Structures are given as C-alpha cells and as structure tokens.
Amino acid sequence: MPSVPLWTIVAAPLLGGLICAALASRAKSSRVDDGRALRAAISAVACCAVGGSLVAGVLASWPLFAVTFGAAPAQGPAALAAAVAGNQAAGLLSPQAAASVDRWVTGMPYVRETLYTWIDTGGIALDFSLWLDPLSVLMVLVITSVGLLIHLYAAAYMADERDLGRFFCYLNLFCAAMLLLVLGDGLMTLFVGWEGVGACSYLLIGFWYDKPANGAAARKAFIVTRIGDAAFLLAMLVLAWNFGTLRIAEILERVTVVWQPGHPIALAVAGLLLLAALGKSAQVPLQIWLPDAMAGPTPVSALLHAATMVTAGVYLIARCHTLFLFAPAVLAMTATLGTITAISAACSALGQRDIKRVLAYSTISQIGFMFTALGVGAFVAAMFHFFTHAFFKALLFLSAGSVTHSLDGETDITRMGGLARRLPMLTMLAGIGAAALAGVPLVTSGFYSKDQILWGAYQAPIGNASMWAVLVLTAAITALYSMRWYLLVFWGEGASERAADPDVDVGSGHSSALHRPSRWLLWTCVPLAVGALFAGFVQTPERLGGVHAFEQFIGPAFLSPGGLTLRARSDGEGSALAAEAEHALELRLMSVSSAAVVAGLLLGFWLYFLNPGIRRLLRASPILTRLRQVWAAGWFADEVADAMVGQTYTTMALLLRSDPADRAVLGGARGVGWAHRLVARTQTGRLQTYVAALLLGVLALLTVWLWSELLPLWPTGAGG
Amino acid sequence: MSASAAVPLEHVLLLGAALLAVGAFGALRRRNLLFVLVSIEVMLNGAAVAFVGAGARWQQPDGQIFVLFIMTMAAAEVAVGLALLLRIRAVTGSVDTSGLDRLRG
Description:
Chain A has helices spanning 7-29, 32-70, 84-89, 134-157, 164-183, 187-205, 212-243, 248-258, 264-280, 289-292, 298-307, 312-319, 321-325, 328-350, 355-375, 379-406, 419-422, 424-438, 445-459, 465-490, 519-534, 549-554, 576-610, 613-620, 622-632, 637-657, 660-680, 687-710, and strands at 102-103, 109-121, 124-132. Chain A is mainly α. The termini of chain A are far apart.
C-alpha cells in the first residue's frame, strides 16, 4: 500500500479548480457548438480532480482503518466494544500500514504532516500542517465521495451552462477549502478552509448573478455567516492569548491540565465557537440564510447547503469537544438551541411550497438534531447522523434537481404530481431519500442515526425526557413533511388534471412538456440511494444486531486527554444487569419513536394521498391557515431579524446622521470658515500694506529682543 | 582713523536710522512706483551708512566690503525694479501702486 501525502487530498481539487478557471473564459466566449468539447473537458477535469482526491483520501486513511480494524480490539480506554465487521476486515488490512500511524495521548491513531512553518513571530508559532484522525477520515471520505457523485451529476445537469468553467472552478475550490477545513491541524488552518467555503458558498449561491435576487441571497448568506466567523476569530485570539498556540491537539491537552470545568475562559471560548458553528450550520438564531441560499444551482444546494458545508459547525464542535466539556453551560445551550432549531425548522418545512425550500428547512432541522446530540455529549451519534444525512439529503436534492429539470424549471410542489408513472426510477430514488429522511424504521439509514441521537438525548447526562419527547415529535413532523413532499411531487394527479381545484393556482400543464432526465442524472444518484439505505448498518442498536463498527472507528476521536467525560447519570454501567436493562429501555424508546414516525407517515399518506379532499376542509380553519402562513414564512425569522438588526441599524444611522458629535464637527468647520474670512481681509493685494506689516513685525521683534537681551547690558554696554 | 574718528558712532547710526526711516516712510506712502523704488534705495543707503560707521568703529574692512555688496545688489535690484515698472506701465497704463491689488483675498 503506497503511502500518500495528506496534502494531495487538498491539492487535487485545488489544481482542478485552477485548470477550470484557466479554461473558463474561453469556454464562455466560444459559440455553443464549439464550446461543447471544451465544456466536456472542463467537466472531466473537475470530476477527475475530486475523484483523485477521493482516491488520495482512501489511501491516506487506510492505515487508520488498519490500526482500528486490523489489530486487536482497541487499545485505548476499553469502553469500545469489538466490532463484528472489524474482525472480518482484518485479513484485508495490511499490518505494515499501521507503522506510519502515531497515537495521541488518548490512544487515538492519527497521521500528522507538517508542510511548512507558516508564521513564527511574536511568541506564536504556526505550522501549516494537516492532521488526519478518524473524525477527519469520516469527513474527508464523505466530502470526496458525495462530492464526486455531485460533480458527476452536475456535469450533466449543468451541461448547457455557458459559464461551466466558472461553475466547476468554484465547486472544485469549494472541495479544496472544505477538505482543508477538515484536515487542518490548527485552528488557523481550519479557519482558512472555513473562510474558503464561505467565499465559495457566496460565489455559488450568486452563480446566476444576473438575477438580483440571487445576489441578495448570496450576500445574505455571506453576511449572516460572517457573524459566526467574527466569533471564531475572537475565540482564536483568546486561545492564542492563553495558550500561545493554535494547534487543536495541543490546546486540548493543555486545557485538561490548566482548567477546571466551568472555567470562565472555557465558557467564553466555547460560547464563541458555538456562535461560529451556529452561523455556519444555519441554526437558530442564525438560520435565516439557508432557505434563501437555494437560489444557487441544485448541485450546489446538494453539496454545500445539505451534505457538507453546513455541517462544518458540527465538525467544529466535534473537533473541539474537550473544550466544550469544560463549558457544560455552553453544551446545554447547544442542545437547547439544536432542539429548538430541529422542531421549528421541521414545522417550517411543512409550510413550504418550493421543492428546494422544503429540503432546506429539513436540512436545518436535521442539523438541529446533530447539534442536540453534540450538546448532550453524544458526539458519535452526531457524526453518525452527519454521515447518513449527507447521503440521503444529497440524494433528495439531486432528485429535486431532476424533477425541476424535467418540469422545465417548475419549483412549486403544489403544481406537481403524477410523475410516478412517467419517471419510475426517479420516483424510486426520491422515495428512498424521503424514507431515509423520515427515518422509516429498520430499513433506512436515517432511522439508525436518528435513533442514536434520540437515545443520547434521553440517556445522556445533559439530556432529559422532555428533550427526547420534543425530538420524537420532530421526527413525526419530519415523517409528515417527507411524505407531503414526496406525494405532492410524484403521486396524485398531475397539475393539469387538478385544474378544477380552486385553491391551487394552476399554471400551464406540465404533463405534456416533460423532459426526461438523462440516465446519467439518475445513475449518479444510485450510489447515494445505496448509501441512504445501507449506511446505517455500520452502527446499530444493541438489540438490532449490535454492530459498532462506526463507534469503534470514530469513538477514539472523542476521548479527551485526562479521561474527562460528562458524568454519567447512572453509575451502574459496569454490571451486566444494568446494561441489559438499558438495552431493554433503548428498545422501548425506539418503539415509541418508530411509532411516532409511522404515525407521521400515515397521517401524511392519508392527507396527501388517500383523502386529499380533507385538505380543503382543513384550509377553512383559520387557526390552521394562520399556522401555515407562519410556517411558510419560517416563523417570520426574516422579519424578526430585519426588525431587530435591520431596523435598529437604520434607526441608528438616521440618529447618527444629525447627531451632536456631527454638529460639533460642523460647528468647528463653521468656526474655521469664519476665521478664514477674518484673516482673508488682511490679504489686500497691495504690496505696501504687506511691507508695512513686515516692518511692524520686524520692529516688534526688535523691541522684544532689545528688552530681553540688550537692556540688562545697558549700564556696562559700549558707549560712544 | 583721523577724520572719521571725530564723528561718534552714535551719530553715524542715527543718520543711518534716519535714512532708513525716511526711505521706509517713502516706500509705504508714495503712490508712484518709481518713487517707491527710490525710497527703497534710500533705505539701502541707510543700512550702508551703518555698515561704514561700524567698520570704522572697529577698524575692520568688513563694513566697507558689505557696502560694496549692497551697492551691487542695489544696482541689480534697480534693474529688475525698472523692468517691472516698464511692464506694469505697459500693461496697466499707469505706475500708481493703488491700482495694483488684484491679488487680494
């Protein structure tokens, strides 16, 4: 197994982006037919770059897999159970590969690669170095594999776009920045990637910049996330001030020595990092940018605003989890905000009519689940949900893109329907995605990862039954809106047949103008669908197979130096009896949440398939209508933000326009003008006045001089 | 120095001061540019008298050398001054200083 330097993972898409940039202007200016070959070349370069990154990522992370699954069960604090899958894979993984792997103080395997010394001055030294541990491996593999599929999809989806070079340049640069973010060894390196993905997000949301609304959405996304970025910078300053380093591993080691839980600086840093994560991951109260970000092309929504970039906040908290363990108040806040986000965004998703906005709100809601998991200390569950969510949400977005493509740009789900007969494969793919999002019990990945979070929320030290109840309710609403989305888009009667329904604004019937999505578009979704179905089986509950491969691999990344953990509520963990009881409880809770999901699905099925007429009755209810308006507007978060920030800003600006300080300055200016006019009088233009003034001045100086210097000498001075 | 030693320095200085004052008064009060120039010459000579007197008092040649410089400078100054005078007369048609105030603030 050849050892691959880590930097190639980042360099491949960076190089691809530069090549695309070089070809972009030629591809844009050439005529449509001439440009076809060039555009194909650009697509190929971009896809190969991400593919190369995927290969490099697999090769580079191979030693980590080898030491986890190849060697004997984990050496580290042995809370980790042996993996069933691990033993089978043992033969595959060469033991030599393990040689290049170091082990951190917690026993976690990692690979570190220093490229060069970046800054070494003023008591702080920053290396530009990369760090690959199990958490990074997970992120890298998800980013590159989902990224590759989305690139392949985009090559077909955007084939008619004249500015294809610019598109793929941004998309490749995004991959490079995102990979740098997850491979960064220090917070500063991470921050470069963090800002890089923010910039690429801005550029890609506003990709079709000739529509002003897209530019506005791009600016909104950029500015709102900047609030978090500023907090990130402040957190780095505080850390550098206190520890003289920005290497994450070093900080986490020092923290456990220097601080006690609840240390004020720990609270400040964790709070600031939380704010940064809230901004990047579109959580309450900074969630307002993500629904508007759907203005970008669909592959962008799938890659940046569902699968990878928006989970950067989750990654940041997971990466710095030890810091957060020292700030229990901030962790509790993370869980609370996550839960609030999960349920509020799920409700908002229920009120949306745009095919992509439903998915955007569902992304916010699902990341809310991840934040809740992080907040209760169930870090593995959060990353597991990230893992499965990346597959099924990318799948849903790509399906939505194919639907919009075939319907000639239609995005309103209330005007769709009846696609199932025409596009059976797409219907099946989207159905898998929607089922995984809803968390259909037992068969989908979303079920297993969501269940882990629910279990964590119930059982973890910070979690409690009410949080669990809210999340179960959210899961039910998720099932309902997944069903609504899926049935409205693909089933029921087509728009033209629904013309009789007075409550639906009917546009042109789309049934006649159906473009079939190409095989390419559909087949790139197939691996995602496989992931959406089967990715969950790497980690299953104790009573359902008890596979722990995921936890065995990634668990060591969440051990803290010094063995710090959140104190468990029950201390009877050791006894087999308690474990048995716990597993039984887990199964009971799982049954309840599964029942809630099924109930949500059935309600959706009844409302949107069996008995659509009932919806007309429901619309008559003023309360429901009002609720729908509130949800359609996303709880009026935009309006609230505008009132709180926008209006405040405008008021302040108006106040400052005529403020006292300004007046004082103006008064000074007036005084200067007045003095100027006074002095200008002496400028008569007549030479003789000047000469008179000159003579008077000389006389005055002479007089002063005489009085001070010569007068004392007078009695002894020279006489005649 | 036999002859000049009889004249006390104070007298020489008073003469110089008187010449300077007369010249300055003329330079300030005269309206005719030509007489302004003449007045400036008178002022220069006041200074020259003071130099000569001081040179005689301390038995140094520097005073006389300075007077030569002043005379040279005065000649040059008159040349420039007269040239300006002629131009001013050609442009404005008069040599009256009271009309020359176009550079007022």
